[in-house]
Amino acid sequence: MTREEIIEKGQVVYKKPTLLNDTPMHYCPGCSHGVVHKLVAEVVEEMGMTEKTIAISPVGCAVFAYKYIDVDWQEAAHGRAPALASATKRLWPDRLVFTYQGDGDLACIGTAETIHALNRAENITIIFINNAIYGMTGGQMAPTTLLGMKTATCPYGREVSLHGYPLKITELAANLDGTCYVTRQSVHSVAAINRAKKAIRKAFEYSMQGKGSNLVEIVSTCNSGWKMSPEKANKWMEENMFAFYHLGDLKDTGADK
Amino acid sequence: MKGNEAIAHAAIRCGCDGYFGYPITPQSEVLETLAEQKPWETTGMVVLQAESEVSSINMVYGGASTGKKVMTSSSSPGVSLMQEGISYMAGAELPALIVNVMRGGPGLGTIQPSQSDYFQACKGGGHGDYHLIVLAPASVQEMADFVDLAFTLAFRYRNPAMILADGAIGQMMEKLVLPPFKPRRTEEEIIKECPWATTGRVGGRKPNIITSLELRSEEMEIINLRIQAKYREIEEKEVRYEEFMLDDAEYAIVAFGSAARIAKKSIEIARSQGIKVGLLRPITLWPFPTKEIQTLASRVKGILSLEINAGQMVEDIRLAVEGAVPVRHFGRLGGIIPDPDEVVDVLKRSF
Question: What ipTM goes with this model?
Fold first, then answer.
């Protein structure tokens, strides 16, 4: 049976979202970015927002997000995506505006932009990929790197005396009056993927309803940076990352507003 | 009104869509006036106080990416913080307005007037090969007039433009005629006029991407060459300057902004003593009036570059003059404005 025949007979069980184009992704095998890209593309499409979406990409592994998801994109300087998003949303209030950022971009160099955009209650969503490492530059320590975790710039493991503590910026965000929905998800299993998709949808809907800022953290693997097989990285994430970065909603005031 | 207030009123009147800024002396009246005028209730203009100059310039980057007319203003230390964003905007070829009401540096320096950011404004400032279109107002009237002019040039060439003023022009009160009111463009007009802008894929068009990134060297060279060709066109077409008493002049002063006002007074004093001196005032600092100064050098015996800095524009004058006549510099530092009489003394001593 050809592809067309399968489609004709209504037997399609799975199809990639139209907004996700056929450009081969530069992400490493096992990386979470591909899955989250798919979820974002699906949600934009399902909400019928293709013609009204303006996305902001970061500096880091997801810098080229604009090559894969067919919406309008602005490529920001390192850490500055929430500033671009703030202006864009205020100037085009009926557009769906979201940023897509990693932990180095969002929780380190862009901490000020992140906190202030969230606390100004900008009607935007920040998709935050937390893999506890700088992937693009080759696996250096991030603000989110766990204690004891080895990276290129803490080769003997992260130590409090040398490097301080890992930053739980999502908990910080949940304490801000400007945030509406703050959640921490993952995409390591089918059930987790389904939950993450629902979270992204909820965040996008809240931002379109003008309920304030929304932060969706996705605790992710970086098997290249962690120097593990994809399978082992998933297992390590479940045992170590989830123990520190607890999954679930941290705040949801959407229903009250 | 004050020069800074004139900037704010002119922005509202020229159909500006958004202002993003952070307070810093001596230009905080721009944001204060906008906040007091509440243009979001009249023209619909967005006014936002950012958490830093880093953030305000990136808000301008985001806003400009959508084809809207957006601007920021700051003073020297704040503009230093903005250099990253300005470089990105030049790289992504975005139209926007940055106002620098200069104060003395280096470092935290002083809050008194200075022209010591000439290099930063005219030679790039941030990383990479780029230029801003730089306009230098010498009066409160020009503070107002140059807002619309800067936006016009910025959109014509898809390049950030800067108004390079100083604390004296910003704080000075003068009478002025405010420019006529121009409505903001509608979203439909923006989508039509800026087909490159990230407005959402209206009508199902292909995605628009605003970026300054290209990892393939061959492609990045092509992008750079295209941008350089644009700069050559700007140099060819957009040079602006004013001539003052140059017809019979034996000596010339070249000065911009508040220094040009002092120069005019010095020329008056010098002429009363029989010294035939005139002024060439660059209005665009980039593109610089190189050809005009070259021509001037063939008519006069010497040129004095009067600047409120340690000698920055004088380098461009010397490049234009190519040794044809002596070129001297005079300037005061630390926020001190030169006295017209001391400029006359310098003229006498120099030539």
Answer: 0.96
